[in-house]
Write a structure and sequence with these properties.
By secondary structure, this protein is of the alpha/beta class. The protein folds into 3 domains: 131 residues, no CATH class; 32 residues, no CATH class; 89 residues, Jelly Rolls (Sandwich), CATH 2.60.120. The strands form 3 sheets. The chain has a 5-stranded mixed sheet with strand order 3-5-7-10-11, with no helix packed on it.
Amino acid sequence: MSDLNELFKVLAEGKKHYEENDPKGKKLKEVKQHAKSDLQKLFEELSVLQKQVDKLEESKESTEQIITEEIPYQPVIHTPEVRAKQVSDDVNKYLTDKSFQQPNPDLVAKDIEAIRLKMKFLEQAIGRIAATGPGGGEVNLRWLDDVKRDTIADGRWLKYSEADKKFVFDEINPYEVVYNTTQVTTPTYTVDDNDFYIGVNYAGPVTITLPVSANSGRMLIIKDEDGDAETNPITVLGTVDNDAGGFIIQINNGAIQMIYRNGWRIV
C-alpha cells in the first residue's frame, strides 16, 4: 500500500498545475477522488484473496499424495501489490487518455472476476459523470414529483395546493388572481391598474374615471357602499357598451360589474 500511495503522490504532483488552472483538470481531479475511494475497497478485497491463496499453498505442502496427472493451465495469480500496481496503471491511463474506452484486461482467475467487473462498472460511471455531469436533468415540468399530473389540461394555470402538498393546474378564476379592493372616500377617483373592487363610501356625489383600455378579460366592480346613491349618485366616466357618456349609479346599494373586451362591457 505504501508503494501505491507513493505512486498517487507522484501523479498528483505532476498534474497539480493542470488540475488547478484548467477547467477540465478540475473535473479530472474530482473523478480521480471518486476513483481512489473505490480502489481502496478493491485493494481490501485483494488482500482477502491473497490470504486465501496463502492457505491453498500451505495445504499443498502438507499433503502426502503426489498428483501425477497432467495439471491444466491455470492463469497466474499476482500478489495484491502487483495487481494493485496494474490496476493503478490502468486507471491512470484511463484518466489521462482522450477516450474513456478501457483496454481489454488480461485473463484473470475466477476469484478476481468480481473485482474486474467492479472496475468496469467504475469506468462506466466515471464516463457518464464526465460526459453529462451528476443529476437526473429532468426538463419536463409534467414529470416532476411535486406536480399533480392528473390536473393538467388546456387553459389552466399552475398554483400550489396545500392539501395535496403539490402544484396543481386549475381553471382561471379572477377572484383567485386579483384580490385588490379599494374604498373611495373622496368626490373623485381614477381607477388604478390594480383595482378589482371599488366600494364608494362618501357622503356626496362621486365621479369615477375608467381607464381608456385594459387587459382583455379584466373585471371591475363598482359598488355604492354608503347606501345613498339616490341622493348622492355615482357617475362613471368612460366608454361603456359603446356609449362614450358612461353611466350613473343612482340606486341605493347599487353596483355595476364590468369586463374589458375591446372596450368596457357591463355584465
